[in-house]
Amino acid sequence: MPASVVSVEEVRNSLPTYKRDEFDQGLIIIATSTSFSGIDILNPHRMNAAEIAETANVQMHGLTGDQVIQRADQILRERRAREREQSIRTLKRLEEKRAKAASDQQQLARFTIDSARYYMGASPYGAPEPVIDLTVTNDTDQAISELLLRGVVASPDHSAPWVDETFYYVVPGGIKPGETQEWSLAPNRFGPWGNAQIPSDAELTVTLQGLKGLDEQPLWDSPELTEHELARLERLQKEYGGIAFSRLE
User: Fold this and answer.
1) Which Pfam families match (predicted)?
2) Closest of 133, 135, 127 to residue 189, by C-alpha
């Protein structure tokens, strides 16, 4: 048996019996604290008793058994403090992300679809042609060059929508803040919009999915939290929700 292992065993045997389990746990804590987040990252097999003793002995520097226990307790406190601080930072980041997404949704809501109508008209050549009539108002503080829209055509006696598609519309010249415009769009008559079975009383619902400014960059498009992030946020709020964040800034 290596001398270093004997040294650890001698220190252990010098302790009262009731402290030896605590000493053993302390050795493991000291040994694993020397690696990057634990030995398993670079060495997937569990450390055996000799490896733990060898690694811990390097860190002991002639400490007594009680000092080993105290050192392990200090390591645990420091580790928990780091984990706590990281958890609080994560909580703050998730709350800020959720608030930014909510703010962006409020900004998008200021661009309104005032009316939407779908019908089959006639092309210049006499063939049936689908038409989307839209009236929109830009109450944002930005000029808008492009819209991402979702159009759903449905009728009460049909279980599934006749049409459910997203589409872009590039606004010629853009639409300024405070401006209302009316458009007649001609979707592809060879796609779902041109389905001859769609009844004349089918209703069109158009919702805004996104906007671009005059520089063609997306506006107010911060993503909402994923289900995983929401669950994590809820857990962190229960544990740390009452803690002030100012000291972490």
Assistant:
1) DUF6694
2) 127
Same domain, 147 and 169: yes
Name beta bridge partners: 118. Answer: 132
Is 228 strand, coil or helix?
helix
Query: Domain residues for 234?
Result: 84-107+224-245
pTM over 0.85: no
Q: Is 38 left (phi over 0), alpha (psi -120 to 50) or beta?
A: left
Q: Would you say 120 and 129 are in contact if contact means Cβ atoms under 8 Å apart? A: yes
pLDDT in tens, 137-174: 999 999 999 999 999 999 999 999 999 999 999 999 99
Give the count of domains, the chain. 3
Element housing 181 (H / E): strand 180-185
Asked if residue 143 and residue 164 are part of one domain, the reply reads yes
